[in-house]
Amino acid sequence: MEQHRTPPPRNGTQRGRPPLPPQAKRGGGSGAAGGGSGAVARPAAQRSQAARPATRPAGVRRPGTPLAEAVRRLRRAVRARRMPEPRLTGLGGGLFCGTLMFLLGCLDRLLFGASPTVYGVLFLPVCLLTAIWVRKSDLAAPPVIVPIAFAVGLLPVADGSGGLSGRLMGLATALATQAGWLYGGTLVAGVIATVRKVRLMRRRADKRRPPAP
Prior knowledge:
Blueprint: H1 22-51, H2 66-81, H3 90-112, H4 116-133, H5 142-153, H6 164-177, H7 179-208
């Protein structure tokens, strides 16, 4: 007897395996072809990304040289430790300068035997500080304050005996003999006050000037 063999199924299924959906049949060839192209495209994309330089965020600065970093840190430390500049009124500047000169005169008498030269040398930095620390609205006060403070500080330094009249005569003599220090300190205070006044007037003029078109 002849045995009839059953032909294999035409839908691409094999015995023991479930049939594939029609979409898988249609896209099988194209998927296999596309898989090869995708495998080739992926390494090319990775190479291009590796070749690109890494972009730095906008807020991050480029690291500088060690010397530049040290200078920046030093500037920050100086700004953080900088003391606020005092601003004295005309009366406050007079009290500051007069009191300081009187104390320096007493110190000069105790340590240096009332030396007029030492007193004159100490008088110059006091004039400098007074002219710097006076506020902007009282810049005319330092040239007037400084001579009065010089005379006040001479009280413990000047030689005088015989009561009040003798003390006044010694003060007048000290003022006459130490006029050079007096004029020098007054000149220092006047120059610094004048420079500050000129700078203040320039700033005000620049603020009032209309902006350029």
